[in-house]
Amino acid sequence: MIEIKNLHKSYKMGSNSLHVLKGINFSVGDGELVAIMGSSGSGKSTLLNILGMLDVLDEGSYTLDGVPIKNLNETKAAQYRNKFLGFVFQSFNLINYKSAMENVALPLYYQKVGRKERQEKALKYLEQVGLREWADHLPSELSGGQKQRVAIARAMAAEPKVLLADEPTGALDSKTSYEVMDLIQKINDAGNTILIVTHEPDIADMCKRIVHLKDGVIVEDKKVTQVRASQYV
Amino acid sequence: MRFLFDSNTWQEIFGSIGKNRTRTIITVIGVLWGIFIYIVLSGAAKGLDNGFEKQFENVAMNSMFAWAQSTSMPYKGFKTGRQLQLKLKDASILKNRIPEIEFIAPRNVKGVFGGSPAQTIRGGKSGSYAVYGDYPISTKIATKKIYDGGRFINDEDIDLARKICVIGERTQKELFESDENPIGSYVRIDNVFFQVVGVHKFTPGGGFESDSDIYIPFSTFKKLYNTGENVGWFAIAAYDDADVIKVEENVKAVLKNIHNVNPKDERAIGSFNLGEIFNRIVGFAKGLTFMSLIVGVATILAGVIGIGNILLISVKERTKELGVRRALGATPREVRSLIILESVFLTMIAGVMGIILGAGVLSIINKMTAELDFPYANPTVPIPYVLGALAIMVVLGTLIGLIPAQRAVSIKPIDALREE
Fold first, then answer.
1. What positions does the domain MacB-like periplasmic core occupy (chain B) (predicted)?
2. Least CB–CB distance from B328: residue in A49, A110, A118
């Protein structure tokens, strides 16, 4: 699904150049649930941004679902993001003047899906995250966990190839975190490929594979026995 | 285009402009005020224009008058100070020599420039009124509205020198009972009986005519007052496409030539040119219209710039939201369209409200001035002006929207999403 070869990325900070990713080789297969771990400054967020086409790589190659991702202009990147990727953010990033359903329907709008179908699909995905009854509520009327579930529903609504989650539980207490992880595991069980950036070991343990990043290189890449979040819920 | 008709597009626009209602309203007022000023000013200018036009509606705009005075230069053996007298045959000479003349009407009057007004008696009632000797053609130059049932002087009246007359509204009021129909009855003008054939409605148009004037056939006037071939003055209308000022010069030149007046004598022939006066007034009204256009458009511009300003701030506040949208697959084009559409939408709403408000105020002013004797009538803003203003607003709204839209697009989604 994801194929990365010899990925380099550096940022210019004034006259200095900060080499963040120093040759990453990494691949993710269909249906995997991967945790990317590392301390802050290890380059994990940069990696996720490049995977999410929010940032461009300096060197190396990136292939997503057989499509080489290179030389993207903003428009092309937006179309690929819309088609291939679903995003879940630490701070949810719901649009605060739109109801839960409208938030979920937004990526479908950019896919040029008709209004009726958008609403039906949005409701279907809200149902999946257990928030069908909250469809007409504004984000301000939802709890943190509910917001993140809406955000996940939104990411899933576009039926992406890969779900990218940047610290999805970072702003949640542990009980809600497990609820969200339970949801993510269920989505993964349905065959979806998911990448999670986290620095919490217990969250990482709920994935099937853990990739450790340190100073821009992968120091460890191991399969783990998945801890089911449902046992904590 | 689908974009424009998608309810979600509009929902997004309403959503984002509804977020800060007070600010939106104040912004809208800026443009609203601009278009309001524009509509009211151009409507008022048009009203003034219409008012002037109404005052002149009974007179041919390209008409002029010429009369004889006394010479101020010696010429061909004639001494200075010779009193000139226009003659009836001058009319045909003028018409022959100056092809631009469409109508020429010789006129005489008693009781305006000289001579006493005619003593007019009917039964026990009497009054003194100015009497004009006229040809039917004079109505082509200055329209006379004749009341129902009556008529003006016709050619047969001239040929037979009939003793008929057309009286004025006031004359009718003073000599007849209110329930009496004057048509067909007789009045005694300077001791000669005349049959009344019509009553003319007086329309104020400047000049010396009034609502009590009596018109009789030129030939009858000639006999009654023994004026022979003398003519008081010529009323002349030029063709619509002719330059009446030029015609005026030509008329004077020809008259000087006929009457052996030094061509350089400025005082021998008097003339008055309605076209010039009218053009001056029309020019004034046009200038006003033009100025109101400039002021209106400038005010609209100021309002639109206000909208652009607000949207710039709004884009800054919405950086994160726009970043999310782009992460979810909004192309730069779609983000740009959203902001521009917001700008155009705000501008249009403000514009339509301003037009409605402006039209309301114009109609109130119209009602208030309807009773007054003030040259102001039917203040309208021509549809092309309104559509033009709307078009300007859409264009300006788009252009000004481009700035915040470009700002919105120039922010990279990764920067927009970066946690604080």
1. 24-253
2. A110
pTM tops 0.80, yes or no = no
Residues of chain B found within 8 Å of residue A81, distances taken between Cβ atoms: 326-329
Same-domain check for residues B173 and B293: no
CB-hemisphere CA count at 13 Å for A200? 17
- Report whether B407 contacts B309 (CB < 8 A): no
Domain total in chain B: 3
A171 φ, ψ (degrees, to nearest 5) = -105, 15
Chain A positions touching B323 (Cβ under 8 A) are 93
Place of tokens 């990136």: A62
Shared domain check, B315 and B360: yes
The token pair that represents B280 in the structure block: 């001056």
Nearest to B414 among A54, A93, A118 (CB): A54
What residue of A is the nearest CA neighbor of B334? A110
CA-based end-to-end distance of chain B: 37
- What is the identity of the amino acid at B350? A
Q: Do B409 and A74 touch (CB under 8 A)?
A: yes
Amino acid at A153: A
Q: Cα B275 from chain centroid?
A: 13
Predicted local confidence at residue B334, as pLDDT: 86
Cβ within 8 Å, pair B332-A87:
no
Residues with Cβ within 8 Å of residue B169, at least 6 apart in sequence: B199, B200, B201, B202, B211, B212
Residue located via tokens 């990325």: A9
Q: Are residues B192 and B129 in the same domain?
A: yes
Contact (Cβ atoms closer than 8 angstroms) between residue A203 and residue A9: no
Tell me if B274 is assigned to some domain.
Answer: no
- Chain B residues bordering chain A (beta-carbon distance below 8 Å): 2, 6-8, 11, 15-16, 18-19, 320-321, 323-334, 409, 412-414, 417, 419
Q: How many CB atoms lie within 10 A of CB B161?
A: 16
Q: Measured between beta carbons, which residues in chain B are less than 8 angstroms from residue A97? A: 15-16, 18-19
- Strands of B24-100, DSSP E: 63-68, 86-87
A104-122 pLDDT tens trace: 999 998 888 888 899 999 9
Examine the domain organization and report whether B124 and B92 are in the same domain.
no
User: Which residue is closest to A80 within chain B, CA to CA?
Assistant: B329
Tens digit of each residue's pLDDT (9 = 90 or more) over B30-55? 888 888 888 888 888 888 878 777 77
Kindly report the CATH class assigned to A2-231: alpha beta
**Smallest CA–CA separation between A19 and chain B, in Å?**
18
Residue in chain B lying closest to A49 (CA): B414
